Amino acid sequence: MRVLVIEDEERIAASLRRGLSAVGYTVDVAHDGVTGLHLAREHRYAAVLLDIMLPGLNGYQVCSRLRAESNDVPVMMLTAKNGEYDEAEGLDTGADDYLAKPFSYVVLEARLRALLRRGGARTRTRLECGDLWLDQARRTCGRGAADIALTPKEFGVLQCLLTRPDEVVPTLDILDEVWSADFTGDPNIVHVYISAVRRKIDAPFGRATIETVRGAGYRVAGGGRG
């Protein structure tokens, strides 16, 4: 699940990136409002963590412009401004939640999970294909009653495909969804992770969920039975 952090304090931004990456999120970071707005327009994010006091464009302006463009990505504002009028202004510009600094990381992560469960119009908590299921908020996966342990990147690859059922998803789209915007490695890494996911979700259950469409990408179709 890909998250955008727009925060001009580099220490806080780096801390958020480390913490969220450690629990399986793919995290992009912007240190000013203009760059943050550009990234939010260019990529599909599960959520945006948005500071208010930013150079270029402040958080209120970034959020209001996204909403004016009908971008419904869930937004949580993070700010040192904790007055009730500041909170009201943030919510009035379209933010979904508001957390004042200093904050507990445990609380932030819990609020983020809650935000994703509520979701914007694009976000469904549970994705399914036959008896295969993936819970985006709890970051769990399984077939029927059997749990399947996935690494964060494996989870992200499967999530990307399940959010676009019966659609051929190009390799570059998977890279864009699962790896950070500054990734410069070999695109074949996607095939490596597709193979790893197949070994976990299909091989033990006699299934063939992920189809390779040669020269085009990958597709999850039907009930995934082999």
UniProtKB/TrEMBL annotation:
<feature type="domain" description="Response regulatory">
    <location>
        <begin position="2"/>
        <end position="116"/>
    </location>
</feature>
<feature type="modified residue" description="4-aspartylphosphate">
    <location>
        <position position="51"/>
    </location>
</feature>
<keyword id="KW-0597">Phosphoprotein</keyword>
<dbReference type="InterPro" id="IPR001789">
    <property type="entry name" value="Sig_transdc_resp-reg_receiver"/>
</dbReference>
<dbReference type="InterPro" id="IPR011006">
    <property type="entry name" value="CheY-like_superfamily"/>
</dbReference>
<dbReference type="Pfam" id="PF00486">
    <property type="entry name" value="Trans_reg_C"/>
</dbReference>
<protein>
    <submittedName>
        <fullName>Response regulator transcription factor</fullName>
    </submittedName>
</protein>
<dbReference type="InterPro" id="IPR036388">
    <property type="entry name" value="WH-like_DNA-bd_sf"/>
</dbReference>
<feature type="DNA-binding region" description="OmpR/PhoB-type">
    <location>
        <begin position="124"/>
        <end position="222"/>
    </location>
</feature>
<dbReference type="Pfam" id="PF00072">
    <property type="entry name" value="Response_reg"/>
</dbReference>
<dbReference type="InterPro" id="IPR001867">
    <property type="entry name" value="OmpR/PhoB-type_DNA-bd"/>
</dbReference>
<dbReference type="InterPro" id="IPR039420">
    <property type="entry name" value="WalR-like"/>
</dbReference>
<keyword id="KW-0238">DNA-binding</keyword>
<feature type="domain" description="OmpR/PhoB-type">
    <location>
        <begin position="124"/>
        <end position="222"/>
    </location>
</feature>
